[in-house]
Amino acid sequence: MNIAVNPELNENSHQTIYLKDYTPPSFEVLSIDLSIQVFDDHTLVHSKLVMQRLTSGDLILCGRDLELLNISLNGNALTPQDYEIDPEQLIIKNAPDQAEFAISVKIHPESNTQLEGLYQAGNLFVTQNEPEGFRKITFFPDRPDILTVFTTRIEADKKYPTLLANGNLVEKGELSDNRHFAVWHDPTKKPSYLFAAVIGDLAVLKDSFTTMEGRHVSLEIYALAQDLPKCHVAMQALKDSMKWDEDVYGRPYDLDNYMIVAVSQFNMGAMENKGLNIFNTVCVLADPEVTTDPAMFYVKSTIAHEYFHNWTGNRITCRDWFQLCLKEGFTVFRDQSFSTTLQSPAVQRIDDVSSLKSVQFAEDAGPLSHPPRPDHFVEINNFYTATVYDKGAEIARMMANLLGPEKFRQGTDEYFRRHDGQAVTVEDLVDSLSDGSGVDLRNFLPWYSQPGTPCVKGRGSYDADAKTYTLTLSQSTAKRHNYPEPQPLPIPVGVALFDKETGEQLTLNSTVLKQSEVAENNIKDGIFVLDQAEQTVVFEQVNAEPVVSLLRNFSAPVLLDFDYSDEDLAFLLEHETNGFNQWQAAQMLLERVLLQDHNPAVYLNAIAKALPQVAKDDALLATRLLDIPSENYLASRIDQEYDPAVVHQKRDAVLNALADRLKDYWADAYQSLPIVEFKDNSVEMGKRAYRNMVLGFAIRAGVEGALDWASEQYDNAVCMTERLGALRHLVWNKANNAQDKLDDFYKRFKHEDLALDQWFAVQAGNPQGSVQVARELMEHPEFDWGTPNRIRSVTGNFSGNPVLVWTTEGMQFYTEIAKRLDQQNPVLGSRILQFLSRWYTLKEPLRSEAKNILQGLKGEVNSTSVCETLNNVLKA
Ligand code: 0A1
Ligand code: ZN
Q1: Where is the domain boundary, 532, 548, 563?
Q2: To bridge 513 with a disulfide, which of 116, 380, 526, 577 should be the other Cys (CB 3.0-4.6 Å)?
Q3: What pLDDT was estimated at residue 525?
Q4: What is the DSSP string of 604-640?
Q5: Which residues are catalytic?
Q6: Tell me, what CATH number does 517's domain have?
Q7: Range of the domain at 417
Q8: Ligand 1: distance of its center to the CA of 312 in Å?
Q9: Ligand at shortest distance from the CA of 273
Q10: Global pTM?
């Protein structure tokens, strides 16, 4: 063994990898024949790899946690003198140009708790290979720019009747010892991270889809028999997604079958393996009795996301993992666009922006800030982040909006034409969009490599004599340690003017707006591209004093600091023509109240005026208008002396004032929304969401009998949205019967894992709860350290209460979990540790205490994932 001392090793001996060091592989893989033999206490993997030299250099096969049984090259058995091996790779120097390997290894999926590679989850064996799991199955050049043809033979005991792999089933048969096998061949070349295999005893829901080319595709969703009735929503969403990608992007499906498998132990939401998606049960199973409306919506959008990856991810993949946002950003943009067909575009945009601001902006404001395309990492698993996914989606959206639908389609057509079957970079995408549309978008590339959220500042002034309105905008981005001085980015700013007297939207007369295609087509809704440090736009023929509406539809992922008066924002809340912009005005007003101590009266008057009408027209939008920025979002805007108790108390005061202000309205509104038969559409979903929200305000306002309404709603609920909504209000308001209802819920849903997750979540997320409650939940017999969903239901919901998190006990709670998961499931452990990333903003003495607690974790963890996060968090 020969491990050179690497100067880039960090204090935990983990290596940092840089984008600038990318080198193309020296060998390609022409094909792989894989044989996986599953036994109770081990699994044997035999592979035949046909490799061919591309350039000079060593032949490198990645491999981790593998027991090498034998290896031969071109028919000759190799001995340890013939290769170098370390815990991460096997290297052959001076390999022949044509190299055919036969390799056998032994692995242990039955004890693989990390949920990467091949692992056993209950009675099921599944794979998770993105990003670097395949190297835990066999030796292979496990990098996304190596694409090859896979033939897979799976063999197992007949107690596992389901044997699946990517592609087409070409053979199956019986063997001795009660064993059987299946052989699958995938005709499309793919990188190893898209390889999948499933071995288990599953039921299947079947359907079919005929593509725009007239090809028949068989669709199959595999799940435990008892869960099969919960697969219909996903099946319909799959067919809708297939149709949508044909209609909007002209992209048909390519294989003869598309399979989805549900697994309850999974680190993320789902995985787009070619033709064989593997899904966390929470992203595929849906039934109104056990699934809330938002969870059901999430199923549909995740099905769409994974399906859309077939073109943006699988047929065109990433050259290296730094390019992750090439596939993820674009695919999130595509799934968000699809979801807009399922509910009102305003609500969809609100939900996407709300999550962007509370998660991605917060990430970008702290020590884990990184560009959508990072330039270095220690552990790539740490980069499946809101920045890569959601900011990546915003970049795709900005370019799509600037082009408009037709030109954007020309651009994407060109991308698919040029790069189908290839592993490419972000530059390749932007080049294709530019060349295909004829509009040069290359000035957007710095968005991919610059970290931090730009802040757009502005002021406006009206000249009544000249009838001009002058808008001055500037941009700035905070400099981040280890990154160059931030440069101005092209920031599309959606603009509209409203007559201050009449509230009417004005026609825009300004040559500067002509920069935008959209502006040419619709002169009331303009887009101005701010691409310098400061710019001025003059609007002419403005006959009356206007109120300007900026960043409409959230035209760019930036913070906006405009010199609005509170009254201007109240005006926009009332007069804006689109629900998103109304919501945005309400949020800006609320941030002033909550972060700058503005008087809440203006907000309260405006919302009281707008709400009843919006609720009549679009109940779902009404629930969003009532959003009060979360404590964690507010905390992300406070960079020092953060006092969680103060933020909590201010937010609570606004909620109380809102509840009081509309006390009579809540009572009437609740009564006017009786429980009716369940229907899965956005109107009914809106009514259910609004009823729950109104009930919460009624209870808060002390409306007589409101807690009884909650009990009745719990008892009479026809769906989970109603039952869980009522339960949450009862528990969080310490109703006398809260424990009875919790016990009832437990009894009803003891055997429904996903519903039981909600039972944990309600208690862990209780603002009246405590660290003790969260700890006790983790001692409960139904708590399971092997099931990430269950762990997240406690840790994720508990994190919604920063007052509890930022206590000695709360911080220790999280560091203990990170320590426990460090070896068992480091990917998850690292994510959980991220809840503490903004420790350095706390006021003293909490800040020092947080630092001590985090430093205390240092010697206690070893995994690359947890160590990288901990080191970065401590660098703050
Ligand atoms: N590519 C998947 C996300 C994913 C990433 C890593 C995983 O395991 C560690 C699993 C899934 C997606 O974007 O859907
Ligand atoms: Zn994805």
Answers
A1: 563
A2: 526
A3: 80
A4: HHHHHHHHHHHHHH-HHHHHHHT----HHHHHHT--S
A5: 306
A6: 2.60.40.1840
A7: 345-448
A8: 14
A9: 1
A10: 0.97
